[in-house]
Amino acid sequence: MSFTNFHVAVLERHNELRAEHSAQPLVLDSGMCQYAQQWANTLLSRNILQHRSNNQYGENLYCCFGKSSISGREAVDSWYNEIRYYTFGVPNPSNFSQVGHFTQVVWKKSRRLGVGVAVQGTRAYVVCNYDPPGNFNGQYSQNVTC
User: So what's the architecture of 5-142 in CATH?
Assistant: First the structure.
């Protein structure tokens, strides 16, 4: 699989943001990109935003309606912007539903990234998968640092 400009933009934005939190850069994985692409296509065909069940990877989802184009930076920034709700140093965030995308983006133990994007008209779905996955209770203070 060859990586598109969209894949590279998503990777670069992840790594810019991860560097701000002393997390190592992610690398794109072609198999994980194919896996993410399959799910992005499924979401578009079903017109829903839903996490894949029995997923072995961490996963962030993004959807956009009413625009004819989407940038990788836009999707990653939407997840990262949850930082405003995150309290650093806590072992387990009590507001996980508000911060789980942010914490997965910067999770230190994650090393590989899969990216999928599906667009039709003015609907777009972005799927990112992370390996190893993040967001494990008791590990936030070690993996999400300021």
Answer: 3-Layer(aba) Sandwich (3.40)
What is the value of pTM for the model shown?
Answer: 0.96
In 3-state terms, the chain is what percent helix, strand and coil (to 5)? 40, 20, 40
pLDDT tens for 84-131 read: 999 999 889 999 999 999 999 999 999 999 999 999 999 999 999 999
56 contacts 137 by C-beta, under 8 angstroms: no
DSSP conformational letter for 64: E
Whether the CB-CB separation of 144 and 101 falls below 8 Å is answered with: no
Do the Cβ atoms of 18 and 24 come closer than 8 Å?
Answer: yes
